[in-house]
Automatic annotation (TrEMBL):
<dbReference type="GO" id="GO:0005777">
    <property type="term" value="C:peroxisome"/>
</dbReference>
<keyword id="KW-0460">Magnesium</keyword>
<feature type="domain" description="Nudix hydrolase">
    <location>
        <begin position="120"/>
        <end position="248"/>
    </location>
</feature>
<dbReference type="Pfam" id="PF00293">
    <property type="entry name" value="NUDIX"/>
</dbReference>
<dbReference type="GO" id="GO:0035529">
    <property type="term" value="F:NADH pyrophosphatase activity"/>
</dbReference>
<dbReference type="GO" id="GO:0019677">
    <property type="term" value="P:NAD+ catabolic process"/>
</dbReference>
<protein>
    <recommendedName>
        <fullName>NAD(+) diphosphatase</fullName>
        <ecNumber>3.6.1.22</ecNumber>
    </recommendedName>
</protein>
<dbReference type="GO" id="GO:0005829">
    <property type="term" value="C:cytosol"/>
</dbReference>
<keyword id="KW-0520">NAD</keyword>
<dbReference type="InterPro" id="IPR000086">
    <property type="entry name" value="NUDIX_hydrolase_dom"/>
</dbReference>
<dbReference type="GO" id="GO:0046872">
    <property type="term" value="F:metal ion binding"/>
</dbReference>
<keyword id="KW-0479">Metal-binding</keyword>
<comment type="similarity">
    <text>Belongs to the Nudix hydrolase family. NudC subfamily.</text>
</comment>
<dbReference type="InterPro" id="IPR015797">
    <property type="entry name" value="NUDIX_hydrolase-like_dom_sf"/>
</dbReference>
<dbReference type="InterPro" id="IPR049734">
    <property type="entry name" value="NudC-like_C"/>
</dbReference>
<dbReference type="Pfam" id="PF09297">
    <property type="entry name" value="Zn_ribbon_NUD"/>
</dbReference>
<keyword id="KW-0378">Hydrolase</keyword>
Length: 282
């Protein structure tokens, strides 16, 4: 190979979620392993894994979820098979039914070329930190189920045929009523629940009525403009994962934000550090 001698370390992922006909056996297996000293991360969304472990978990969870959800061929509806260590599902030309003989299947479009339905899916999702027209405030929202005073940036799925910039403008307007003009793509982060790719952006609201908040689709309980200083202070002593208590030094009633491992935190940090200038350079 032109790349030299390539060697890797194999990792195997097993779905041991207690469910269906295997619920009792899976529960028993987990209990036995815990008695042997195996530590189970029962809340991986808490984002307390190392970067290496998080990357392995994200890939494994997405692949397992896709295989679990895709037992039938999307081209013809017949059962398919998992191959390539779970990275592809194929619709075989024949079925074996209890013996050596095979029964031919009908034609399937997936056998006539590369088909995207045969490979793991990734769902592009925008997530945006929106700043006011004058750059002094940041727009944040919260869902009802979140802890008190815990806010984050706005997010949503891209629609077919939509650019990232268009998606940011649409989603921000749908969720908050705020109208966005300039959109700058900042960074990205995989989110395996089940298979999203979070595409982070920093956006700027249009002046005047463009900054008016109106909760159109009720997805958010509240959307508010916070000063940059409030966001800066929250980044210092108000960050925590969902389900975790506020950190030491947090003053009750102040703004709380996602932890540093989350792309929402990275976007808010970029805004606070002046990533987006009020007047574009181009």
């Amino acid at each position: 190979s032109d790349h030299g001698d390539i060697k890797g370390h194999p990792y195997f992922a097993i779905d041991i979620t207690p469910k269906g006909n295997h619920a009792e056996k899976a529960t028993q297996f987990l209990e036995e392993q815990e008695k042997k000293g195996l530590s189970l991360d029962k809340n991986p969304r808490a984002m307390n894994q190392s970067p290496e472990a998080a990357a392995l978990y994200a890939q494994a969870r997405s692949i397992i979820d896709w295989n679990t959800r895709s037992p039938f061929c999307a081209g013809c509806g017949l059962p398919n098979l998992s191959v390539h260590a779970g990275y592809k599902r194929v619709c075989p030309p024949a079925d074996k039914k209890g013996g050596a003989s095979s029964e031919l299947r009908g034609d399937c479009p997936t056998r006539h070329g590369v088909s995207n339905i045969c490979f793991p899916r990734t769902d592009p999702t925008m997530i945006a930190a929106v700043v006011s027209a004058d750059g002094t405030k940041i727009l944040l929202g919260r869902q009802k189920r979140w802890p008190p005073h815990w806010y984050s940036t706005l997010a949503g799925f891209l629609e077919p045929g939509e650019s990232i910039e268009e998606s940011v403008r649409r989603e921000v307007w749908e969720e908050s009523g705020v109208r966005v003009g300039r959109v700058v793509i900042h960074s990205s982060q995989p989110w395996p629940y089940p298979s999203s790719l979070m595409i982070g952006a920093i956006a700027q609201a249009l002046p005047g009525d463009g900054e008016k908040i109106s909760l159109n689709d009720k997805e958010l309980e509240v959307a508010k403009w916070f000063s940059i200083d409030e966001a800066r202070q929250a980044l210092k002593n108000g960050t925590s994962s969902l389900g975790e208590p506020a950190p030491e030094g947090y003053k009750e009633g102040d703004l709380r934000l996602p932890p540093p491992q989350a792309i929402a935190n990275r976007l808010i940090t970029a805004v606070v550090e002046g990533y987006l200038t009020v007047a574009p350079k181009m």
